[in-house]
Design goal:
Layout lengths: L5 E4 L8 E7 L2 E6 L5 E5 L3 E3 L7 H25 L1 H6 L9 E3 L3 E5 L2 H13 L4 E5 L5 H12 L3 E5 L20 H14 L7 E4 L6 H7 L3 E2 L11 H11 L8 H6 L9 E2 L7 E3 L14
Parallel strand pairs: 7-8, 7-9, 9-10, 10-11
Antiparallel strand pairs: 1-2, 1-5, 2-3, 3-4, 6-13, 11-12
Pfam families: Peptidase_U57
InterPro entries: Peptidase_U57
Protein name: Sporulation peptidase YabG
Length: 290
């Protein structure tokens, strides 16, 4: 086996697909391909996978991801539709322009980052992405926040509870939660008002309470469960398209993530979506002057 191979763990019944991130002696560091879980395993416990689509867990995860994308598209339309009545006309959408919240997405997994950026692009959410190791995220934010000036920051990658650690209150029991917490603090030092900068942080089994206390608006994982790769993106899209005068419907947003209430939680937060008029692209050409 080598770095980059797709594998499952035999001792877990091959329930989840991983990619080998690195090898050390007879151990492998694994990153989930559909879930944001960081794990390690003995090499003799791993089984290579040639066709991921044959795995039931992978099929379910992809079906859930497609359903999540469909929901995002529908809700993107619904969230902006109330403005149609304000502007009137046979094709009212053409009469105004939209300003959804701008996203800065930091991801510890390059493949997840690419998938996330593709979703933002499909849904017309302005977004900039950066791939960096979770330990480098605090420093990366110091540079990127004043440069990008986002409305929404997503801080995610891979995480997990360390083996034989039972104390969920101890940050040292997690593989990357301490890095996420430090990154959230950097973001909150940059902008203290939680409605001016929405922070979404965490990955699988992350220390939910510590992330909220550090200043995040939404975080994983209240039940220390696995979260799907697109769950942080879903929350970011809903934040970007909820009008700035309205509170993001927390229960509804979380209920429609793939991992649900055990995977994602948050606090009351205002949206970041605005409209403007006129839509210059829809206006007739100006008459010539003189």
């Amino acid at each position: 086996m080598k770095q980059g191979d797709l594998v499952v763990r035999k001792s877990y019944g091959g329930d989840m697909l991983f990619r080998i991130a690195s090898l050390h002696d007879q151990m492998a560091v694994l990153r989930g391909t559909d879930y944001r879980l960081l794990a390690d395993s003995r090499l003799d416990d791993l089984q290579s996978v040639r066709n991921p689509d044959e795995l039931g867990g992978t099929r379910r995860a992809r079906i859930q991801a497609n359903e999540s994308l469909r929901r995002m598209r529908e809700e993107r339309e619904q969230l902006s539709s109330p403005y149609s009545a304000m502007t009137g006309g046979a094709n009212p959408r053409r009469s105004y322009f939209e300003m959804p919240g701008k996203v800065l997405h930091l991801d510890g997994d390059i493949n997840y980052l690419k998938k996330s950026m593709a979703v933002y692009s499909q849904l017309q959410v302005p977004a900039e992405g950066a791939h960096c190791h979770e330990s480098q995220m605090p420093q990366a934010l110091l540079h990127l926040l004043p440069l990008v000036r986002p409305d929404i920051v997503v801080i995610t990658g891979h995480d997990g509870v360390l083996k034989n650690r039972k104390d969920w209150s101890d940050l040292n029991s997690y593989k990357n939660s301490v890095n996420f917490v430090q990154a959230v603090r950097v973001a909150r030092d940059y902008e203290k008002h939680r409605d001016s900068l929405i922070v979404i942080a965490g990955a699988c089994q992350s220390h939910f309470e510590a992330l909220l206390q550090a200043g995040s608006n939404f975080a994983s994982s209240p039940g220390r469960i696995m979260i799907h790769a697109l769950d942080p993106v879903y929350v970011a899209v809903r934040s970007a398209y909820t009008p700035f005068r309205e509170t993001i419907n927390i229960s509804d947003v979380i209920a429609h993530t793939i991992s649900g209430m055990q995977g994602v939680g948050g606090i009351e937060t205002m949206g970041r979506y605005r409209i403007g008029v006129p839509n210059l692209k829809a206006m007739p050409s100006s008459a010539s002057i003189g």
